[in-house]
Amino acid sequence: MQAFPPDEHAPGSGSADDFRSPFDEDIAFVVVREGDPALPSLLPAEEALIPPRAAARYVADFRLGRAAARIALRALGVPDRPILRGAHREPRWPDGVVGAISHAAGYALAAVGRTDRFTGLGLDLERRVDMRDITSRIAIPAERLWLEAYPDEERQLLALLLFSAKESVFKAFFPSVREYFGFDRAHLRWDPDDQAFHGALLPPLDRVSGAARFRVDCQRAGDLVLTSVQLRV
Questions:
Q1: Which of 40, 44, 165, 172 is 20 to 30 Å from 218 by CA-CA measure?
Q2: DSSP track, 45-62
Q3: Residue 18 has what DSSP assignment?
Q4: What number is the average pLDDT over the span 79-88?
Q5: Distance separating alpha carbons of residues 155 and 146, to the nearest angstrom
Q6: Distances 79 to 6, 55, 69, 83, 107 between C-alpha atoms, Å
Q7: Residue 1: pLDDT above 50?
Q8: Cα 216–chain centre separation
Q9: Can the peptide bond before residue 204 be classed as cis, meaning omega within 30 degrees of 0?
Q10: What is the sign of the dihedral through the CA atoms of 91, 93, 97 and 101?
Q11: SS3 of 159, please?
């Protein structure tokens, strides 16, 4: 039984810079690192979104994520503008654009594309943690049976990938669903040959365009994993 392949990095040595773009060429994909002096500052309207007593980590991640997103928009040819927040706290992209932001371990990643080509994009970066206490909350019964077939070390990595993949799925389908839906609304199946998840949304979300079959790309670099989804028109 083949699980996710061993990584060439020593434990803890991987970085988000090691990830290749998982998207098609017409999607702008950006990775930025905390502390880079060349990153754009928040615009005043973005600064106003930060709660007055927000924790320092929240503020740093928010700044980093908005910087990555605005760099990605520039690469797509979209004039610089503030990226505000929607009713569900999602990034509010400019008209004609879909995108996703993720941050972890001092990095932020963003991907943006045009709505005439994509209905949604998903992107999630995670640092490896112990998944034993949360696996039952992220996996539906069929996925738990799949995970239980692996030894503990592989099971922990695959559970992290499953968690990240479902985060990416939610982000990709949110522009179509327009409301929160839980991890139990998606069924993902691991393809060891493709090294990716193939999935479908479960009723009543199965009526959404693209919900019947989609792919979640998966990558690993040391203790970091990256998952992504692109939904074409």
A1: 40
A2: HHHTTS-TT--HHHHHHH
A3: G
A4: 93
A5: 9
A6: 42, 31, 12, 12, 24
A7: no
A8: 10
A9: yes
A10: negative
A11: helix
